Amino acid sequence: MFKKVLIANRGEIAVRVMRTLKEMGIKSVAVYSDIDRKSLHVNVADEAYPLGGKTSAESYLVMEKIIEAAKKSGAEAIHPGYGFLSENEKFAKMCEENNIVFIGPPPKAIVSMGDKVTARRIMQEAGVPIIPGLEKDGLSEDEAFEFAKKVGFPVMIKASAGGGGKGMRKVENESDFSKFFRQAKSEALSSFGDDRVYIEKFLEEPRHIEIQILGDKHGNVIYLGERECSVQRRHQKVIEESPSPFIDEEMRRKMGETAVKAAKAVGYYNAGTVEFLVDKYKNFYFLEMNTRLQVEHPVTEWVTGIDLVEYQIRVAAGERLDIKQEDVKLKGHAIECRIYAEDPEKNFMPSPGKIERLLTPSGPGVRDDSGVFEGAEVSLYYDPMISKLTVFHRNRDMAIKRMLRALDEYVVAGIKTNIDFHKKVLTHPDFVKGKYDTTFIDNNIDSLLERDDKDRDVAIIAALIEYYSKEDKPSKKPVNKSSRWKDYAKNCWTI
């Protein structure tokens, strides 16, 4: 087993990895930019090395600096967390070339699954269902348009090298096709340096359901149930839960076995996620594979009792999985809310600044994976996520109530957050019934942004007017200059 591991990341995920390393008796090494000098992950680590710079491009994305820090510290392995270099095959190769273990999948699997066109082709050959679509190098607008007419509108145009909703456009009708096709290509080029796009049939009432898999270097791969991630805004996940309220045991088994098939098709090991789109008829189709630890991994850890980071480290060290598929038993229900420093009433704009006061929820079945503390600065240079709040209870109804209790306890002052927005989602009748898909937020955005305290400001002004209007008037009541306690004391003194 490793004695020292460097975490090539920041914020909550760096702290999350360090906690497991500590429990395993492994020393942790942090790296940090100039802005993150006083960050929580730096304080939690056993050692810390500066990278310099403010932006991620000047610090956490500079591979040479990360490798140099690992060598200086004597770290035998690097955990990339998520984002930054976690799905960069060049960095994974650099680690190998410098005799440092990359805690992640093999570079070849990263390459295969990183390009969506290549991934679709591999999945098709492996017998994994994919959404009817057309992909080819140099796909022209005319070819894409002919395909759209053939399968019928609406269709989705997606960036081949994309992710996170960048370079993605839904086209409802023929008249919009040309405009959105060009927009998708332009955004793909600016976001990924690659303007290739492909086209897919748009699914009705689509749900985003993903399967967590775990594999070792000895050819063993298992699945750890699913996560429902359909509550999204602009293709970014907002709330996740496990198990999904939409699928049954038989469908879970089929999706799980398909995910294992997909992972084996690219020789995958370590933790990974196979994402599917599911239509209202419960047909599921391969969407993409994330070759890293997911942000929402805690919900899987709640329902399986398995520490995914611990298994990532053990697999990277060459150990065999000591759990088989039949050992995986899902229990209870877990929900995750991503707490962001953002202002939902201003189109979810980031809300950077100093956290003046912070009170995080706790109690039975509550976990808050955070990278901040009271007095910390939320910077504009990085993702504005404050923490991942997850809860666990014996069933979905109780898990929702527990999450609402936890959100009520969560106090963040000095910056805006989306805490109240989460409460609106969790109490929406359709969410409570489990009747939602990926259009849920877009279709309900007005009601989700309504404020319970919309008359609060008016009430405060009225109260102040009433108070000050009385303050200058002499009171008609006699002033009571004494009290029962004073009278009692006087009597005591006179005795």
Automatic annotation (TrEMBL):
Domain Biotin carboxylation: start-end pairs: 1-446
Keywords assigned by UniProt, alphabetized: ATP-binding, Biotin, Ligase, Magnesium, Metal-binding, Nucleotide-binding
PROSITE patterns: ATP_GRASP, BC, CPSASE_1, CPSASE_2
Gene3D superfamilies: ATP-grasp fold, B domain (3.30.470.20)
Ranges for domain ATP-grasp: 120-317
SMART domains: Biotin_carb_C
Biological process according to GO: malonyl-CoA biosynthetic process
UniProt superkingdom: Bacteria
GO terms assigned for molecular function: acetyl-CoA carboxylase activity; ATP binding; biotin carboxylase activity; metal ion binding
EC number(s) from the headed UniProt entry: 6.3.4.14, 6.4.1.2
Top-rank EC class of the record's enzyme: ligase
Pfam families found in the cross-reference section: Biotin_carb_C, Biotin_carb_N, CPSase_L_D2
Protein name as it appears in the record: Acetyl-CoA carboxylase, biotin carboxylase subunit
Organism lineage: Bacteria, Pseudomonadati, Acidobacteriota, Holophagae, Thermotomaculales
